[in-house]
Amino acid sequence: MTALPLAERDRRWELLQQLLREQQLDVLVLAANDYRGHKGTLRWVGDLNLAHRYGYAIAAPGREPRLLLPVNLAMNPVGDWDTPVDHVRHMGDGLADALRATGTPGRIGIVGLGQIMKVEDYLAIRAAFPDAEIIDASPAFERLRAAKSPTELEGVREATRIADASFERLLEVAGSGVSERTIGAEVAARALALGGEDLLFLTMYGRPLGDGTVSGHFGQPADRVLQRGDMHTFSFELVGPLGYWMELSRMVCVGEPDELQLRMNAAVRSGLDAGAGALRAGDTPDATQSAIVAAVAGHGAGCAYWSGHGIGQDVIEEPWVGLDVVQDRDAPPPDPLAAGMVLSLHPFVIDDDKRAIGYMADTFVVGPAGASPVSAVSRDIWKVR
After folding, report:
1. Which residue among 16, 179, 206, 340 is the one 20 to 30 A from 262 at the CA level?
2. Residue 326 has pLDDT above 70, yes or no
């Protein structure tokens, strides 16, 4: 499959109509900007991969959605769905005009109200419709897109096949005396050649603090050169041709791993196994985090306060897999998981004496008895020369 079919478009547009009815909205504005985790709304609504800046989609009862983009994005391809698009010089004025074209809205829903929409655009809507009620429709939209269709699941599998092949290339080039940049360049070349987009190739390792302990380092490939004995984690996040994100991360040792490195790998593997088992339709995601934390503790290690999230046409979607900070204890309980949801689990662990870290990531599809990983790449430590 090389393009999202029109049947998928029609399914999504009907879901938007359903959301408008359920939330009793006169119009829905979906905000996006070119930041990983903040631009998937436009691809979900209009098959547009936003390559620069920001934009909106407008949906109203009984109308096809329209896209609203800055005029300097007129050359940005709008995808295979040929979704109607308006290009404007001033986005605030353009938004007000687009909403007027739907009538005189009394109740306006905005997806991305808290984190994505520009303040000046919100103020333009407020000034144009001073009597309108404006609500945050983000939670309703996140629930709407959380469970994936068969077509969407194929998009996740497609992206994962690209990441798996890119990891094979990493194993061919990584080793003692090779820099992170060299590895990143080879991995990116493989991913791009196979149709990957929006590549995010990150590296993680334990950074020595000089007292026998380490802290986690996580960032873009740099000039660091791998040496024998290093345990290095390489993380792949990318979009496949159908526009779906995935995450794959594995631990790679230069030479033979020692006992501590093997134990950290075992801790992460146990956490992932426990988390996958707890990702059951009908359960809540905080139970998954609790299962991960308990499994990691059995290996003499602690776990970060959050260990995953939903993933789809945004790299970070609802729900969050975590405790306390991620899921506010004063907030209502999170919605239960549903079959067909796709989540990334990525436990970050550090041993109780802070001498080493461990980290891996996998993408899972939720089922009635637990979740199934999309990638078949082993979670054992991989050894390079």
Report:
1. 179
2. no
Query: What length does the chain have?
Result: 385
Domains 6-146 and 150-384 share a fold: no
Interior angle at CA 373, CA 270 and CA 376, nearest 5: 95
Alpha helices in 174-312 (DSSP H): 180-193, 259-278, 285-297
Question: What is the residue extent of each domain of the chain?
Answer: 6-146, 150-384
Q: Residue 175's pLDDT band (boundaries 50, 70, 90)?
A: very high
CA distance 205 to 208: 9
* Domain 150-384 bears CATH identifier 3.90.230.10: yes
- Give the CATH number of domain 6-146; options: 2.60.34.10, 3.40.350.10, 3.40.630.30, 3.40.718.10: 3.40.350.10
Amino acid at 376: A
Tokens of 261: 């490195």
What's the whole-model pTM score?
Answer: 0.93
Element (H, E) at 26: none
Residue scoring higher pLDDT (7 or 286): 7
Confidence bin at 329 (pLDDT 50/70/90): low
Of 295, 289, 291, 330, nearest to 308 by C-alpha is: 289
Residue 66: both structure tokens together: 């329209």
- Read off the pLDDT of residues 128-169 as tens digits, 9 standing for 90 and up: 999 999 999 999 999 999 999 999 999 999 999 999 999 999
